[in-house]
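Supplementary notes (optional reading)

For those who missed the lab, this is the record we used. Protein: Amino acid transporter transmembrane domain-containing protein. Length: 463 residues.
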Amino acid sequence: MGTQGPANSDYIPNNADTRTAKEKAIDDWLPITSSRNAKWWYSAFHNVTAMVGAGVLGLPYAMAELGWGPGVAVLVISWVVTLYTLWQMVEMHEMVPGRRFDRYHELGQYAFGEKLGLYIVVPQQLVVEVGVNIVYMVTGGKSLHKFHELVCKDCKNIKLTYFIAIFASAHFVLSHLPNFNSISGVSLAAAVMSLSYSTIAWGASAKKGVQPNVDYSYKATTTIGKVFNFFSALGDVAFAYAGHNVVLEIQATIPSTPEKPSKGPMWKGVIVAYIVVALCYFPVALIGYYIFGNEVDDNILITLEKPTWLIAMANLFVVVHVIGSYQIYAMPVFDMIETVLVKKMNFKPTWSLRFITRNIYVGNIHNVYRHDLPFLWRPSIVLWRICICPNHILCKKTIRVSFVIGMFLPCIMWLSIYKPRKFSASWCANWVCIILGVILMIVSPIGGLRTIIIQAKTYKFYS
C-alpha cells in the first residue's frame, strides 16, 4: 500500500516489562487486559455481534429513500470502506515493536499526542458506545413487546416501559462478567441470532413474493423531502457498519508474540465477520426493497407480519442479539470507568467496586430511555436522540462523531503515523475515505434532524 514505518523515530519502545507488581495486578484486573487467550474465531463473532445490529432490519427502508442505483452503491462502498479502515486499525494495533495499543484512545494518543489524542478519541468513542447501549435498551424492549403481542394476542396489553425494564434486568447480571473472553458465549449466541433473524427477514420476504402494484419511486413526494430523506438514509447505512470503536479492544484479547502477532488471527476473524455481514446486509436490503418497494416499514419485520410464529421468533432472536451487542459495546466503557477509579482515584481493584460501578452504569442507561423518544429508534439519528434526552449531558456537536469514527478517523491516524508517499495508493485511498466521511458527517445529521422535527409535532411525551 505504499506505506512506511512509523514516523516518530524518537520513540524507542521498551521491550522489557517495567511495570511494578501493583501495576501488573491492576492490568490483570481491568477488563481489556485481564485475558489474552482468545482464538481467531472469538474475533469473528465479536465483530459480527458488534457490527450486525438490529439496524439491518431498516436497510430496505433506507433503500426506499436512496433508490436502486444510489442504494446499491452506498451499500457496497460502505462495506469496502469500513473493511479497509478496519484493516488499518488491526495493523496499527501493534505497529510499535514490543508494544500493543490495547485501547482506542492509546492509539489516538500515539497518533495525535498524549492530551490531544484523549480529547479526540475518548468523547467520540463514549458517544458511540453509550449511544448504542441506549438504542439497544429500547430496541430490546420493543422486540420483547412485539414478541409478546404476537404470541399472546388475547393477553392484556403491557406498556413498553416494562419490557425495557425486563431487558435491562438481564444486563444487571451479565454486566458483571469481567472481560471480553468471559462474554464469548453470549457473543457467539448473539452472532448466530443476527444471522438467523436476517435470514428470516429476507427469506420470509422472498416467500411472500413481489407485492401487487409495487412502487420503487422515492417515498417522499416533494423535492426537499426526497433530498432530506436521502441524507437520512445515508446515515442509516453508515451506522449499520458501526463496529470500529471496539476493534482494538477485541484484538487486545488475542495472544501475540514477535513470531505470531495478533494481527494474523484478528484479521482472519475480521474476514469471516465481514462475509457474515454481507450475508446479512445485502439480501435483507435488496430483497426487502424488491418485494415491498417504497411501502416497506422502517423495520421490515413489521411489514412482514406473517407467518406469525416466524416473525415472533425473529423478534426473539433480535432480543438475544442486542443483549450480546450491548455487552460488547459496554465492556470498553466499563474499562474506562474502572481505569479512572483504580489508576487515577486510587480505589482498590475489588469485586465490590466493579459491582457498584457497573450497576450504576446499567441503571443510568435504563433511566435515560424513560426520557427517550421511542419514535426515534432509527440508527442514523440515535445520537441526536441522546442529546435531546433531558438527563444526558453530551453536547449536540458530538453527534457527528459516530460517522467520523467509522469512516475516516482511522485514515487520519494512518496518515499521521505512517506518512505514506503523496499520491501513492495508500495516500489516495485514505484521502478518498476522509472526503467521503466528511460529506457523510455533514449531511446525514441534517436528514435525521428534519425527521425529528416532523415526527415531534405529533408525538406525546411519556405516553
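If you only remember one thing from this example: The CA atoms of residues 138 and 164 lie 6 Å apart.
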